[in-house]
Amino acid sequence: MSNALAIATVTQALALLIENNLGPETDIAVKVDTRKPPAEPPAEPTINVFLYQVTPNASMRHTDLPTRASDGTLLKRPAAALDLHYLISAYGEEAELVGQRLIGSVVRTLHEIPVLPKELIELAAERPYLTGSDLAQSPQKVRFTPTVMDIDETSKLWGMLHQTPYTLSVAYQASLVLIEGRERPVPAKPVERRTVRVLPFGAPGAPVPPSSTMPPSSTTPPSSTTPPGAELVESARQEVVEAEADGAPKAPTPAPAKGAASRTAAARTTAKAAARRTAPARAHKDTGADADGKES
Fold this sequence. Notes:
Helix content is 34%, strand content 15%. By secondary structure, the chain is of the alpha+beta class. The protein is elongated.
């Protein structure tokens, strides 16, 4: 975070960044100016760095709320999160494509060095009109990203510059610049009494261990290894055997009150079906035996 000179410091440092990285493609003397594009094109090769808009940063504009307590006491220094929008235009001899060569150097420089170096910020702060700038000490870095503008947006932007002819230019956005308030918050009161205690489990006033407060598990495995419903299945099997021996099915034994209801019903159904299948065959066999006895 920095003071109110941060915006001007970023503009001056951006101009120094472009000026120091024009070579080796550009072998002519180029003037880098921080004014708006002129109404009359300059005679010498010139690059204009023009800050045309300052907007709040959408992602950081509410991070410092609240800054004051209910009684008005300042809790945190307010900070304005800003984005800076630049229009960088180039002027030069059209026959030698100087303007296009300069714009190419600008794009290459900001793509290669998108973050504003600290040494350039310190160098920019040495200007007499920027004395007292503390942007170099801010942990927040300023990053440049190109802004895509269509023909309509470009026309509106240049139309805003009264009586200024259009020239080849590119737009960039600088994020993030934080400007702090001047008032300092009241320091918090020191701790007067410590109430933190360390007690072992079991000591008077100590918390109860979590394991002793947990209820016993309700899913206790059965003591017997016999699967549930095995006795019912054996009883149904005995009924089927007796039905085959007597030639007619018998009424099944009532199911016990406890056990798996679904397994009980399945066992009963299986036993009855087996008894019905064996009963006609048993009866037919007994009828054949009686007929053979009569013949003999």
